[in-house]
Design brief:
Shape: elongated
CATH architecture: 2-Layer Sandwich
Strand content: 15-25%
Number of helices: 3
Strand order of the largest sheet: 1-2-3-5-4
Number of domains: 1
Low-confidence stretches: none
CATH class: Alpha Beta
Radius of gyration: 16 Å
């Protein structure tokens, strides 16, 4: 397994106070079940040297599909409401997903942790948006700005 990828996983492990990983790792995937209810999969494609962040946002009823797909299309336009990630829907099972990929060598430890945290924040906001559309609300496809740490 790629040494840079293992370093990224180690940064997440240390940040989340997870136990030591087995050596060698049994898989390229790390599944994080976060307290706010989001489950994020971190995966590594050795053939392309790409890291993938992936989560299921939620499901919707078929009668909400047009509104959901419209919201996704608006949000994905220049990644305006996804913070660099991409929303997608599997219409055969009425399920919305959020994903992001990037080269493993393009990021290191703490910036990777921050990227995963931002991904989780956006996923949680989209979970609320999808639930709102599902309940008949109008989709607000702007994602709140990341809270500033400067005061």
């Amino acid at each position: 397994m790629s040494s840079p990828y293992v370093s990224l996983l180690e940064a997440i492990r240390a940040h989340c106070n997870l136990p030591e990983f087995p050596n060698p790792l049994p898989s390229n995937q790390l599944v994080l079940e976060l307290e706010q209810g989001c489950t994020i999969t971190i995966d590594f494609e050795e053939e392309t040297s790409m890291v993938l962040l992936f989560t299921e946002i939620g499901t919707y009823q078929i009668d909400a599909e047009a509104a959901i797909l419209s919201s996704i299309a608006q949000a994905n336009f220049l990644w305006a409401a996804t913070s660099g990630s991409t929303l997608s829907a599997r219409t055969d099972i009425q399920t919305v997903y959020l994903a992001q990929q990037f080269p493993v060598n393009s990021i290191e430890g703490e910036p990777f942790v921050e990227r995963v945290e931002e991904f989780a924040r956006v996923a949680q906001q989209w979970k609320l948006i999808v639930e709102g559309v599902e309940k008949g609300g109008v989709a607000e496809t702007t994602v709140e700005e990341k809270p500033s740490s400067e005061s």
